User: What shape does this take?
Amino acid sequence: MIKDNLDEKLKEFYGTKEELDHDFLKLIKEVPILPLPRMLFLDDRTKRIEAARKKYAQLYDVTYVHNAKECLRYLCRQEYDIVSLDHDLNGDDFQNPDDVTSGMEVVRYIVKCGGFPPSQIVVPEVWIHSSNLLAANLMISELFKVGIPAYFRRFEYDDDISFWDGKKHKPNVVLDKWIASTFGMCKSCGHDVELDLYYQCHRCYQREMKQCE
Assistant: This one.
């Protein structure tokens, strides 16, 4: 009896379930849908591009480009929140950074022009997803010279050799030593210090090296 009275009072106050569902759907339609952040993704490998489509489909509005000139053309057309760059293009591995067809040409052009114009509302964050760590380090260093935030975000896909495969490795297995690349918050200890390409400070790197021995 008490439960029935309570149900009746709740219906009077809130309405029936059908009315609530109708009001909820109406509210959803009225709420504006925010656009996805824009990403410009430079790469020439079909498998990596297909993997990026699956990975970023629900997260970003992605424009895919395949060479340096095309990338610069799109950068001049519209603003992006993230620009993700590869270095080794045209099917080459360990391409010469001085090659005008490499991803370094995009960085070189941006730096030579003094960075993005002050009138640009959004200054994109640059991700370097190349597996060529040495070239990636150079690209990041050059971009930081003109105040553009740039970070290493290696993009793993089926043909990549995964850096972390469940086994214990030295942290910088490719470079085999800690190399200062940028400045920011260490992913391990949280201190604002010089970091390597994996966002790890020298002290945490040394500690992890000892654990891997």
Remarks:
- The chain has seven helices and seven strands.
- The longest strand covers residues 38-42.
